[in-house]
Amino acid sequence: MKIARFLDHHGAIHHGTPLDAARALRLEGELLSGLSETGDEVSVARWLSPLVPVTIFGIGLNYRAHAEETRAAIPDNPVVFMKPITTVSGPDDAIPLPLACQRAPEVDYE
Known about the structure:
With 110 residues, the protein is mostly beta strands. It has two helices and six strands. Helix content is 9%, strand content 41%. The strands form two sheets. A four-stranded antiparallel beta barrel has the order 1-2-3-4. Strands 5-6 form a two-stranded antiparallel ribbon. A hairpin with a 3-residue loop joins strand 3 (23-30) and strand 4.
């Protein structure tokens, strides 16, 4: 079963099984404890990210091969970075790039 998260035209967020680009069968319950089919067909206003976004903390250059691959100096201490919830996007959302990044030779998927 495919499970997606979406916003309906009344502003409510649901989980559902996609039927096509604009409709889903609504599921009820909780994603991690169990969802069940309701049989309700719902019109989708917008597809959302699969999971509710949370702030992510990561460690950059955390292994030698990655530092060497990027030609970066091996840090004395871990490089900690944060990705706020605003960096999470849905499957059809645009990914805006700041002008400075548009001029960069490469934009990483990270």
